[in-house]
Structure formats: C-alpha cells, structure tokens
C-alpha cells in the first residue's frame, strides 16, 4: 500500500512529463537551443563536425550540410546560414560573423544536419547536435567551452520546427549545486525549449544563513531566452534556485571577475 | 550517490565543492545530515577515511591539502556523501546508498585553480565496467602563443588493483596515429596534446580499447591567468531516442575496425 502511494506521488511528476518529447517525424534532425552572445564583451564560437559522417564508411558519400537558425531573445528567427560539412574535420565557426548589426546581444541558435544515416534511422534514433559552444570574454586568449545539453528542437518537413522541451504539471525547482562566490558578476542564461510561454524565476539564496537575497522573474516565449544578472560582493556566497514549469530548467552560468571568466552548465 | 573526485591538472590545484541539498524539489525528500568520506586506492585495497559531516543545506569545499595526511600524494581522492560511515578497508569500491537523483544527477562542483583564476564544471563519477573502452572526438585544442592543452582521462573501477591500458590519439581524417600513452585506472591521467602536430582543422580522435574514462579537456595560458575545462559527450550523445546505445556500439565498432590493431 505504501509502495502504491509512493508510486502515485511520483507519477504526479513523471506521468506524461518526459525529459524531452519525441520528434513527430522519424529521422528528423534534432538540436539543442544553444545560447549565443554577441557584444563588445562576449563572442560565441561553435565547433561544427560532420556527425552523420562519423557513422559512414569512407566509401559512402553524400552531400551533407548543416543549417544554423539564429533566434533573438524573444525566440523570433533572425537569420539562417547553411554551411557545408567537412567529414572528419573540425570547423570552429565564429558566430559574430552572422550576428552583426543586431539590437539584441544574446539569443539562441540551433543546428540541423541535413542527412541521417540509415544505420541511425534504423535504430529509431535521430541525429542530434549537442556539441560544443565556446565563449570568448573581452580579449581573453582562451575561450571557455560548454557542451550542448538538451534535445530542445527538431526540424520537420517544410522547414517547420517542433520544440521538444517538456512541461510539468507542478512547479519545479532546479537547485543548482554550485556555490556562487564574490566578488564576481554572474549571468544566468535561461532558455525556454517548450512550445508554451513559461514564467521562470531565479532565486538567490545565501549559503551562509540560508536567507533569500532576491528573486527575479521573467516570462519567456517559446524559444525565448534571458540572462539574469547577479553581482556578488566579497565575501558573499550564494546559490541559485530556478523555478519554472519546465521539466528541466538547467541554466548556463557565466562568471566574470577582473577580466577573468568561467562558463559552465548549472 | 556518485563519487566526486578532486581533480589533478598541470600547475593547478584541484578542488571539489560538496552540497547537501537535492538538485530538485521532486525526486528526493531528503534533509539528512551526511557523512563526508574520502576514498582512494592504495596497495590493492580501497581505503576510506571519514572527514566530517555535512549538515542539510551546507556546502563545503575540499582541496587535497584539506584531506587527512594519511592519503598518499598522487592518488585520486574520491569524495562521497553517505548516511552511515563507510568501512575503512574494502576489496571493491564501496557501494554508496540510494540517495540519488536522475534529472539531474546529484553533482558537485569539480574545479581547478591557479593563484590567478579558476575553472569548474558540475560533475560526478561512477565506477566504469572493466575492461571497457573509450572513443571520443575532441575539438577543444586552442591555438595561440602561450597556450597549453591537456587531456585528462578520469577513471574509477570497482577493483582497487592497478592496471594500465593504452590510449591512442589519431587525426580522424587521415587515420594517422599521432601518439600512444598509458592510462591508469582509478586515477586522473594527464596527457599533453601540444606537440602532436594537430592543426586547427584537425579533429582529434582518442580511443582506448581496454578502459573507459571521462575525457576532460583542460587548457591554460602558461602564466596561469586563464583556464578552460570541459568534458566531451560519449558517442551515444550524437543521437537521441530509439536504441541510442546501439548507435554508440556501432560507432565504436566502425572506428575501432577502421583504425586497426
């Protein structure tokens, strides 16, 4: 009986609430919704590799390309770029080349690969671009890399897209297991990969006494993004709790201090 | 729950921050105080020392210098949080109690620092099956004057008995072997990626036919002013849904066969 109660309680959080949805079209290419930043301070790069080509023998040839779709912070399409894929090589793409003269300084982008090898579609699987984005801060000699995270969006027929982020029946908290420490400027980037508007809160809580320091809220359109700003003085330490109706609301965290920076998934 | 290693990296100090609160509000109702353990492999045994308790909502950071002096220099210390004390000597890696979450996993902050800066990622490690294997494409090498690039292979297995395997680094396009190195189990093996002749368009391919590992890529400026750290995905992450782990097997089989013995 107790087991049944536990299962019923658990079902409130799991029934028809998968981590991500399945694409409606078999073989549809899938991508993360990566965050781009383009300003005097931040530049964004993407490591493009021919994922489909990795599954093919050298004798198998087909024209393969990747299409980048760039969205502003409201989720509106800004532009798209098609790039040829080079088998078994690396292309480090400077995204600022595609993002000049824009009013917004951040948004999202996705990358769809044109070809799904039969060996992949035969498994009922989809090629997914969840590879690596790097960010350059000011004139730092090193870029900070982060891997893609979620299968957030897919491309259907006729250039239509399907958001794959899943919604929760109950409000969820994503409690980032990272201690923010001052003095530093933290920027917490959030993306809405679902097909519905989502309210997202970012609560800052002291790790010294557990007190709530502040809570900021934003409403995001489907495909929209936002960067919460947090400035911590020395010797403040804090943690963040992301509240939303998203099943997985994992933030991307940018930390900068004294011309140094770090970027990581929360 | 998983283990949380204190990383090793060249001319840098590793540190790990533990958190005693669940990463979400729905998978686990847990507000218990927990024992903090450090476990390491020594002389064919797993050794464990208790290094205190972590109250609910508490956060604590450990570097190697914060650990008991009994731990030999050079080993990979594995931190963990448990409801009861772990035995001090084990023939296999202690199983940790069922305090775990999936969406996301209960993680720690794993970082490295110089006197000027630090970098980190949110991570954890569970024992790999032995012998296991590794295949990873790593487009992380950064090129500029004064930059240094390293691959850190992080492995733990249930057995404390030391073994080594060969890791091979290829240019994926030319199928050209660039170098061979030894990788150790239950350790963080550091390999320099500089001087192997890779160019900015080359896609490094790292394989190991007899050991699994988490591949971390660590870059630094030679003065230690800037650091970068990230791990690659397993090949199964190139696809989603369906039999995606089959896709990983197919990819490994294809490339291991292509690269020959």
How would you summarize the topology of this molecule?
The complex is a heterodimer of chains A (about 270) and B (about 260).
Chain A: H1 2-14, E1 30-31, E2 34-37, E3 42-48, H2 51-54, E4 65-71, E5 77-84, E6 91-94, E7 106-113, H3 118-121, E8 126-129, E9 132-137, E10 144-147, E11 153-155, E12 161-163, E13 167-175, E14 180-181, E15 184-191, E16 198-206, E17 212-220, E18 225-232, E19 237-246, E20 252-257, E21 260-265
Parallel strand pairs in A: 1-8
Antiparallel strand pairs in A: 1-11, 2-7, 3-6, 3-9, 4-5, 4-7, 9-10, 11-12, 13-19, 14-19, 15-18, 15-20, 16-17, 16-19, 20-21
Chain B: E1 4-5, E2 13-19, E3 34-42, E4 45-54, E5 59-63, E6 78-82, E7 89-90, E8 108-113, E9 118-123, E10 134-137, E11 147-155, E12 164-171, E13 176-184, E14 187-192, E15 204-208, E16 214-221, E17 227-231, E18 239-240, H1 244-259
Antiparallel strand pairs in B: 1-6, 2-5, 2-8, 3-4, 3-6, 4-7, 8-9, 10-15, 11-14, 11-16, 12-13, 12-15, 16-17
Task: Write up this protein.
The complex is a heterodimer of chains A (266) and B (261). Chain A has 266 residues and is mainly beta. Chain A folds into two domains: 30-163, Sandwich (Hypothetical Protein Tm1070, Chain: A), CATH 2.60.290; 167-265, Hypothetical Protein Tm1070, Chain: A. Chain A contains three helices and 21 strands. Chain B folds into two domains: 4-123, no CATH class; 134-259, Sandwich (Hypothetical Protein Tm1070, Chain: A), CATH 2.60.290. Chain B has one helix at 244-259; strands at residues 4-5, 13-19, 34-42, 45-54, 59-63, 78-82, 89-90, 108-113, 118-123, 134-137, 147-155, 164-171, 176-184, 187-192, 204-208, 214-221, 227-231, 239-240. Chain B has a five-stranded antiparallel sheet with strand order 1-6-3-4-7, with no helix packed on it. Chain B has a four-stranded antiparallel sheet with strand order 5-2-8-9, with no helix packed on it. The longest helix of chain B has 16 residues, at 244-259. Chain B is globular. The model of chain B has no long low-confidence stretch (mean pLDDT 95). Chains A and B meet through β8, β10, β13 and β21 of A and β9, β16, β17, β18 and α1 of B.
């Amino acid at each position: 009986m107790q087991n049944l109660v536990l299962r019923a309680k658990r079902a409130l959080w799991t029934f028809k609430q998968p981590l991500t949805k399945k694409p409606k079209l078999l073989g549809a290419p899938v991508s993360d919704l990566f965050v781009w930043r383009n300003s005097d301070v931040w530049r964004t790069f993407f490591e493009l590799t021919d994922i489909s080509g990795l599954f093919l023998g050298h004798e198998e040839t087909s024209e393969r390309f990747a299409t980048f779709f760039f969205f502003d912070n409201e989720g509106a399409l800004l532009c798209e770029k098609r790039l040829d894929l080079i088998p078994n090589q690396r292309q480090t793409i400077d995204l600022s080349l595609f993002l000049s003269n824009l009013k917004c300084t951040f948004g999202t982008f996705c990358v769809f690969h044109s070809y799904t090898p039969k060996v992949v579609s035969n498994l009922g699987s989809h090629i997914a671009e969840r590879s690596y984005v790097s960010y350059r801060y000011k004139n730092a000699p090193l870029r900070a890399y982060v891997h893609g995270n979620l299968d957030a969006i897919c491309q259907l027929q006729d250039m239509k897209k399907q958001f794959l982020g899943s919604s929760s029946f109950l409000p969820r908290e994503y409690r980032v297991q990272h201690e923010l420490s001052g003095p530093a400027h933290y920027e917490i980037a959030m993306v809405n990969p679902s097909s519905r508007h989502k309210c997202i809160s970012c609560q800052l809580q002291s790790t010294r006494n557990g007190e709530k320091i502040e809570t900021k809220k934003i409403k995001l359109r489907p495909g929209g993004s936002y960067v919460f700003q947090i400035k911590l003085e020395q010797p403040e330490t804090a943690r963040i709790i992301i509240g939303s109706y998203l099943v997985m609301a994992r933030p991307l965290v940018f930390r900068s201090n004294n011309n140094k920076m770090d970027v990581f998934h929360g | 729950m998983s283990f949380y290693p204190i990383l090793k990296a060249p001319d840098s100090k590793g540190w790990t921050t533990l958190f005693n609160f669940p990463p979400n509000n729905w998978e686990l109702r847990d507000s218990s105080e927990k024992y903090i353990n450090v476990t390491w492999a020594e002389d064919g045994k797993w050794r464990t020392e208790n290094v205190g308790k972590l109250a609910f909502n508490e956060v604590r950071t450990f570097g190697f210098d914060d650990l008991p002096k009994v731990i030999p220099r050079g080993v990979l210390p594995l931190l963990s949080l448990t409801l009861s004390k772990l035995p001090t000597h084990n023939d296999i890696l202690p199983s940790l109690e069922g305090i775990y979450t999936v969406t996301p996993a209960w993680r720690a902050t794993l970082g490295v620092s110089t006197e000027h800066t630090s970098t980190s990622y949110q991570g954890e490690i569970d024992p790999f099956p032995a012998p296991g294997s590794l295949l990873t494409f790593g487009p992380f090498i950064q090129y500029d004057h004064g930059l240094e690039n390293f691959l850190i292979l992080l492995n733990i297995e249930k057995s404390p008995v030391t073994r080594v395997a060969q890791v091979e680094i290829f240019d994926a396009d030319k199928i050209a072997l660039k170098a061979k190195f030894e990788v150790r189990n239950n350790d963080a093996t550091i390999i320099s990626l500089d001087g192997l002749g890779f160019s900015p368009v080359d896609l490094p391919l790292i394989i190991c036919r007899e050991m699994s590992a988490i591949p971390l890529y660590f870059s630094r400026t030679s003065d230690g002013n800037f650091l970068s750290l990230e791990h690659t995905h397993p090949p199964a992450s190139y696809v989603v849904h369906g039999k995606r782990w089959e896709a990983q097997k197919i990819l490994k089989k294809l490339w291991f066969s292509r690269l020959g013995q």
